[in-house]
């Protein structure tokens, strides 16, 4: 077991590993002793904010976000997230990802407002590049991506869900999803807008963005922001059922089709990436915008009292 931990320091093997005895080892051609796993094995790796559980049998990884209290997307969270998606992308065994939250009531509260409030231009630029990177990795992924939206998902959380191929949401009218940036006195960048337009069309996006609409679950289904509503306890199992349909499609055909649909939107950001960062930095560091963020955060905290 000690050797195993040396070989896979970041991995916790579950399933029948505990029963691995000497006969659970095989010798490689070079003579090295390697663990010999039974057919269905799950490998779970945990970082500070994420758990990634890979099932070698199905080729599906479940990525669970766990950054209390609300899975807000901080610079560190975003960095870890992009690295994890990149690793799965490079893992030939991984064909699909289910993205979900390990916290009650919230999928993700979107960008961490504290990363944009009272911070200097250099920090804001680094943060924005990480936001771009998260979206580029997810929207441009070759893998099948399913969002299991088991709680509220405003702003950047909605962007994350929209970047997936398919969205299943908990049928709870208390949960909401949408790009509510205007309510904070900020403006959704063009690639947030494009992602939403690609998902629900021009008119619904125009209304949603200007009004900063947060749709409850039934409305989200009606406008097409999510594809299915299921009882809260069934979100993950419904995502597994959904992904099996996608897995039945030959990867190369699905991937080329996905790229054909998404590449123009991705290329638009790639060719304006630095300009987009500069726009963000000069916008977010304005005194008036900083004031809006401060007022918004104060209101958020006052809701509790
Ligand atoms: C011209 C244009 C050029 C360039 C583009 C320019 C600008 C674009 C800029 C930015 C784009 C930003 C997109 C975003 O994602 S902004 C973030 C928007 N998010 C929200 O509005 C969500 C706010 N949160 C909520 O609505 C709720 O917290 C909730 C529904 C997610 C959960 O509700 P709960 O009742 O369960 O939890 P709370 O008590 O409200 O929260 C607990 C705790 O967490 C703090 N918090 C909540 N959300 C955030 C957040 N997004 N960032 C940081 N912190 C957050 C909240 O204040 C509480 O803290 P305390 O316990 O009181 O300390």
TrEMBL record:
GO terms for biological process: fatty acid beta-oxidation. This is Enoyl-CoA delta isomerase 1, mitochondrial. SUPFAM superfamilies: ClpP/crotonase. The keyword Acetylation applies. Its EC number is 5.3.3.8. It is found in: Mitochondrion matrix. Homotrimer. It catalyses: (2E)-tetradecenoyl-CoA = (3Z)-tetradecenoyl-CoA; a (3E)-enoyl-CoA = a 4-saturated (2E)-enoyl-CoA; (3Z)-octenoyl-CoA = (2E)-octenoyl-CoA; (3Z)-dodecenoyl-CoA = (2E)-dodecenoyl-CoA. The keyword Lipid metabolism applies. Pathway: Lipid metabolism; fatty acid beta-oxidation. Key enzyme of fatty acid beta-oxidation. Able to isomerize both 3-cis (3Z) and 3-trans (3E) double bonds into the 2-trans (2E) form in a range of enoyl-CoA species, with a preference for (3Z)-enoyl-CoAs over (3E)-enoyl-CoAs. The catalytic efficiency of this enzyme is not affected by the fatty acyl chain length. GO terms for cellular component: mitochondrial matrix. Belongs to the enoyl-CoA hydratase/isomerase family. Pfam families: ECH_1. Keywords: Acetylation, Fatty acid metabolism, Isomerase, Lipid metabolism, Mitochondrion, Transit peptide. CDD domains: crotonase-like. It comes from Erpetoichthys calabaricus (Rope fish). GO terms for molecular function: delta(3)-delta(2)-enoyl-CoA isomerase activity. It comes from the Eukaryota.
